[in-house]
Amino acid sequence: IYFNKGTDELLKNAYSDINAMNEIGERYSYSNLDDEAYKIFETAASKGNKKAMFNKIWCLYKGKGVKRDYELAYTELEKLHNEVSSVKIIEMLGEMYYLGNGTEKNYDKAFEKFSFIEMFNSEAKYYLGQMYLNGHGVEKNEEKAEKYFKDAAEMRNRKAIIFLNEKKELKKDKDFNLNSLFDDIEPVEQT
Known about the structure:
mainly alpha, 64% helix, 191 residues
C-alpha cells in the first residue's frame, strides 16, 4: 500500500499512521540509517504495530541502531510469537535455538521450527543442512545435508551458496551449476 508513496508523503502521515511509520523505518534501514530506523521501529512498536515490533527485535538481534542484546531479542520475540506467527518469526526463533543466541541451544526446538517452514524458506533449509551434516539434534546424514544445502542454494541462499562453493560440491556435481542461479539477472551497464 505504501510502495508507490514517496518518503515525504509518508512522513506527513507517519505520526498518525503507524504503518506509514514502520514503512519509513524500513526505508531508513534499507539505506543503512540504522539509528533512525531503530527509533522509528521502537515508536511504531510501542503503538502496537506488529511488523514494527518484529523489526525492532531484528535490530536488537543484529545490533542495528542499538546495542546487540540476544536475551532481550529472544524474550520479545517469544512474546510476539504468542500474538502472531510468521515465517520470519519462526525462522529467527529457529536460529536462536540452533545457535543458542538469547536462549540455551535446543536442537529439537530448532529442528521443529525449521521443519515447519522449510518448504518456502531458504534459511531453514540451510540450517537443516547444517543439522544433518553435523548430527545436531538429528542423526548425521550427509546425503540429506547436501540436498538441503542445494535446495537452499537454488533459492539463492547466500550462506548455502558459499558453503557449497567452499566444499567444492558444486564442481563435483555437473547437474548443479552455481552460475545458473543468476541467469535471469541482467548485467548492469556502466555509464
